[in-house]
Amino acid sequence: MEDLKVVPMQFTEFEVESAALAWLEDLSWAVKHSSESTPDTPVAELADYSEVVLAQRLREALLPKLIRGEIRVKEAERFLKEKRL
Predict the structure, then answer these.
(1) Which end of the chain is more exposed for a tag (fewer CB within 10 A), N or C?
(2) Please, what sign has the CA dihedral across residues 82, 57, 54, 33?
(3) Are 13 and 43 within one domain?
(4) Cβ contacts of residue 47 below 8 Å, gap of 6+?
(5) What distance in Å separates the CA atoms of residue 19 and residue 38, rounded to the nearest whole number?
(6) What is the DSSP string of the chain?
(7) Neighbouring residues of 57: CB distance < 8 A, sequence distance ≥ 6
(8) What is the pTM of this model?
(9) For all residues of the chain together, what is the average pLDDT?
C-alpha cells in the first residue's frame, strides 16, 4: 500500500469564526456582530476589545434554564468558572 501524505488544512480566523457563528445560528442562538457591541459605541456591551464573551448575555441565557431545572447550579458555576466569567 502506498504511503499517504497528510497535509494539514489551513484555516483563517475569519473562516473558523464564520463557521462557528453559522453553527450557533443553526442552534437558534442570536448572533450579534462585533460592530454592534464594541466598547466605542453607545450601546457597548464589551468593556474593552480583549473581551470575547458577552458575560451579561450569558448569565441571562443561563438563568431561565436554572429556573426551569434544565441545568443545575453546580453545572452553571463550573461552566462560568472554566470560562473565567
Answers:
(1) N
(2) positive
(3) yes
(4) 39
(5) 21
(6) -PPPPP------HHHHHHHHHHHHHHTTPPP--GGGT-TTSTT---SSTT--S-HHHHHHHHHHHHHTTSS-HHHHHHHHHHTT-
(7) 45
(8) 0.42
(9) 79
Which range marks the domain in which residue 38 is found?
8-49
For residue 3, being part of any structural domain is answered with no
Write down how long the chain is: 85
Choose among 50, 62, 54: nearest CA to 32. 54
Average pLDDT over residues 62-84: 81
Contact 21, 31 (CB under 8 A): yes
Whether the Cβ atoms of residue 53 and residue 47 lie closer than 8 Å to each other: no
Q: Which amino acid is at 69?
A: G
